[in-house]
Amino acid sequence: MTVTSTKPSTASTSTRERIIEVAIELFARQGYGGTSLRHIAEQLNITKAAVYHHFHTKDDIARVVVGRALDVQQAATDRLTVAGTDPAAWQRALPQIIDIVIGHRRLLYALERDEDTYKALFANDPAIGTRLSDEGASLAGLLADPTVDPAVRVRLGCTLSALLGPFILLSDHYQDIPGDQLRQYLTSAIVVLLQDLSTEADTRQGRHLA
Length: 210
Prior knowledge:
Blueprint: H1 15-30, H2 37-44, H3 48-54, H4 58-83, H5 87-102, H6 105-113, H7 115-121, H8 128-134, H9 137-143, H10 150-169, H11 179-194, H12 197-209
Helix pairs in contact: 1-2, 1-4, 1-6, 4-5, 4-6, 5-10, 5-11, 10-11
């Protein structure tokens, strides 16, 4: 069965990049433990020696895959961190975030299905290990801030869960839904979760000060 790459391959795509693309798909489809260098070589119709030329071990490939997945998560997290606890800013940022994660669904799924394995594998890695253990810390700080209106904290948390569910936490249940449909459904759900939140928070703040 031919692998569908996460990005379209071109004549100029390097063998190293093709190895990574195929690894992402195989890690997502059959797991890190169920994928060998031989499997990757066979999908690319190259020899294991050609794979070894670019990566000495499967762990080396996993390090790149996990790093890229964390980069995607960080790009999304950075946008929400900049938005802070302003519901209107979240509404502006979320369409961009949805586009980012939809464009990397298989990559994120490859990380999610074996995240515990990667945490153990890279526990002592000064770069990947730290990033795996710290992911989500900045958003947790925002949502745990007791000075923020509780309704805002709860509904922003629900919005975050609505986003994380189909792409990370429960992503294996949504792989059959095309990206365009998923974008539409998520956008509709987020509109419901965030609508009128800024106005309601301002009203409560005004009553508190009165």
